[in-house]
Design a protein that fits this description.
Blueprint: H1 9-17, E1 24-28, E2 31-35, H2 37-53, E3 61-65, H3 70-81, E4 85-89, H4 95-105, E5 107-112, H5 115-122, E6 133-136, H6 147-151, H7 158-167, E7 173-178, E8 188-192, H8 193-203, E9 214-217, H9 224-236, E10 239-242, H10 249-256, E11 260-263, H11 265-281, H12 284-297, H13 307-327, E12 334-337, H14 344-352, E13 357-362, E14 369-372, E15 392-395, E16 400-404, E17 411-412, H15 416-422, E18 429-438, E19 442-448, E20 453-454, E21 460-461, H16 463-470, E22 476-482, E23 490-495, H17 497-506, H18 516-521, H19 523-537, E24 548-551, H20 571-577, H21 579-587
Parallel strand pairs: 1-10, 3-4, 3-5, 5-6, 9-10, 9-11, 11-12, 12-13, 23-24
Antiparallel strand pairs: 1-2, 7-8, 8-17, 13-14, 15-16, 16-18, 18-19, 20-21, 22-23
């Protein structure tokens, strides 16, 4: 049996132990079509040989800029086998970020998925001195297609690939992943084969998947969490299905009936909003039962409640929550949630419905997982679970989480001083997150160190925790707490426009023009949202309570530049963009 030392060993291990006729599955012409482990590796080796024929040398940096698709995984393994380093990039970042990353990394060859992305990068190719070749996966006239790489496979003997593979060691660099960067330029995180393999090993007990499992993937493969899980899925022999798009995710879930998938909290929030919207449409006894079940779910704890509570929960699962399960395919064993904080209320709701949402925590710099709630080790809502068995954590005096383990990065590419700043002499990585242990077992994140701010009165405000709580309101889609160096905290709020419009109609509110702009100016809408703000304020000290709000008429998005590709708030950008709203709050 193959001893897995390098990431590219994993699919060969699958071929030996769990040969799968549907290793990766893609929907083509309304049919889900799989590719076998054997065919996958045949294509991988063709691409590896072709890359060598194109002049790719060990140590070269090769970029993949594409949405999730099987070609991404073929390229990933193929590039590694040549001794070159994979530089995955989000397909939705700005031209300025592409220019910076390509030049900082010294990209030699790049494969993108679409004509749009090809044109975007081709427009700055003259500004990137190292870029020799640019290909697209989709076929278009007058654009070099990535099939040209495998077409040159015959020019390189497979023995050259085997020779190069033999020289690659466990501790060697495998990939440079550029963080999305909420401030400043992206940083290139250097991860070794060992970094990612150790994280696969550490996460194995936490993931309810095996060689019979179907998993659905729709987060970008360049996201280190999804990428690590792809390696884990390959290791245990799962069939990995690619969702067509975010727009079709609901339909794809029903078709694939996955046993597991990963999600960011924003997606879980949207799924829940759709469920609640359907509940609002019910009438009579059905409506009463629906909201009875919701109230019951809000009281859920993984450790269980009284026999009477569990009896009622059994009824709710049969009458109401079974339909939630059906909407997610009916066979989901777990949803893995990461990238940002999950509302505890949502975790309780889905747990009660028999759909475990396992929230975890990590960073690109830690390959990524540090801890994760686990059905075997235990789940605590409001925490990010027990530590992986091969990871250590301690806390600095100010509460910052420090991490040590084989998953901690090699360092930042071209940034030795930043590396020394974030990894101390004893090998502890400083995460920048504030946290604590609960019951000496579960890690709890309380805030992002750099996002904590003081009011002019010297009182600390912890925005992320507050934002997560306030988003429990049906009327609030997005929220950003503001007020650094001001007398009091306030908030920018993006209303849940779909729900607000339904509420306006139901309550017969005078608002003939239901555009987003009009809704944000409607006094009754503002008053109603303020009612929820006032209610949530009761859980905070007087100095923390949100005193004023400004409603924004457009959702914060990646495309608008207000969110990172992992959907984190770019607070500085948002403050600059909505300076007039800020000034109105504090200068009025």
């Amino acid at each position: 049996m193959i001893n897995i030392q390098r990431l590219f060993d994993i699919p060969y291990y699958q071929l030996q132990k769990y040969p799968n006729q549907k290793m990766f599955v893609t929907k083509t012409n309304n049919e889900w079509i799989g590719i076998s482990t054997e065919t996958f590796l045949t294509r991988v080796n063709e691409v590896s040989r072709g890359l060598v024929a194109f002049g790719v040398l060990p140590g070269d940096k090769i970029c993949i800029a594409s949405n999730s698709r099987v070609e991404w995984n073929i390229l990933d393994i193929a590039i590694q086998q040549t001794g070159a380093y994979v530089v995955p990039i989000y397909p939705n970042i700005s031209v300025n970020d592409y220019r910076y990353i390509f030049n900082d990394a010294g990209i030699k060859l790049c494969v993108v998925d679409s004509k749009e992305l090809y044109d975007k990068i081709n427009s700055i190719k003259s500004e990137i001195s190292t870029l020799e070749h640019l290909f697209a996966i989709d076929k278009h006239d007058n654009i070099p297609n990535w099939s040209e790489i495998s077409d040159k496979a015959s020019e390189t003997d497979i023995s050259e690939i085997e020779r190069r593979k033999a020289l690659i060691k466990n501790l060697d660099l495998a990939t440079i992943i550029y963080t999305s960067g909420t401030t400043g330029n992206p940083k290139g995180v250097m991860l070794s084969h060992n970094n990612l393999i150790s994280n696969v090993d550490g996460c194995l007990p936490s993931i309810p998947a095996d060689s019979t499992s179907r998993v659905l993937t729709f987060l970008p493969s360049c996201h280190v969490y999804e990428r690590m899980l792809h390696y884990l899925y390959m290791y245990v022999g799962c069939s990995i299905h690619f969702a067509e798009s975010m727009d079709t995710i609901g339909e794809n879930i029903k078709e694939v009936k996955p046993h597991m998938f990963t999600a960011v909290p924003r997606l879980i929030e949207k799924v829940f909003e759709k469920i609640m919207a359907k509940g609002e449409e019910l009438t009579g006894i059905k409506r009463s039962l629906f909201f009875w079940a919701v109230r019951l779910a809000e009281q859920y704890e993984f450790t269980g409640k009284s026999a009477w509570y569990n009896f009622k929960l059994g009824i709710a699962r049969k009458l109401i929550f079974s339909k939630w399960q059906e909407a997610l395919g009916g066979e989901v064993k777990a949803i893995a949630s990461g990238s940002a904080a999950l509302q505890p209320r949502l975790a309780r709701m889905f747990m009660a419905a028999g759909i475990p949402v396992l929230e975890g925590y990590g960073l690109t710099e830690t390959s990524p997982v540090i801890s994760v709630n686990c059905l075997k080790k235990g789940v605590r809502v409001g925490t990010v679970g027990p530590l992986l068995s091969n990871v250590q954590v301690k806390f600095a005096e100010d509460g910052e989480i420090l991490v040590k383990g084989p998953n901690v990065m090699m360092g930042y590419y071209n940034l030795p001083e930043k590396t020394k700043e974030d990894i101390d002499e004893d090998g502890w990585f400083h995460t920048g997150d504030i946290g604590m242990m609960v019951e000496d077992k579960f890690l709890k994140i309380t805030d992002r160190k750099k996002e904590i701010f003081k009011t002019s009165g010297g009182k600390y405000i912890v925005p992320q925790a507050m934002e997560n709580k306030f988003k429990e309101s049906r009327f609030i889609e997005q929220i950003m707490v503001i007020g650094e160096n001001q007398k009091f905290p306030s908030a920018f709020i993006v209303p849940n426009f779909a729900y607000v419009k339904e509420w306006i109609k139901r309550e017969k509110i005078d608002c003939p023009d239901v555009s987003n702009s009009s809704i944000c100016k409607n006094e009754k809408v503002i008053t109603r949202i303020n009612e929820d703000v006032t209610e949530f304020n009761k859980g905070y000290g007087n100095w923390e309570q949100i005193k004023k709000i400004a409603l924004l008429d457009k959702e914060l998005s990646v495309e608008g530049g207000e969110l990172t590709p992992t959907l984190k708030l770019k607070r500085k950008v948002i403050l600059e963009k909505y300076k007039a709203n800020f000034d109105h709050i504090y200068n009025d």
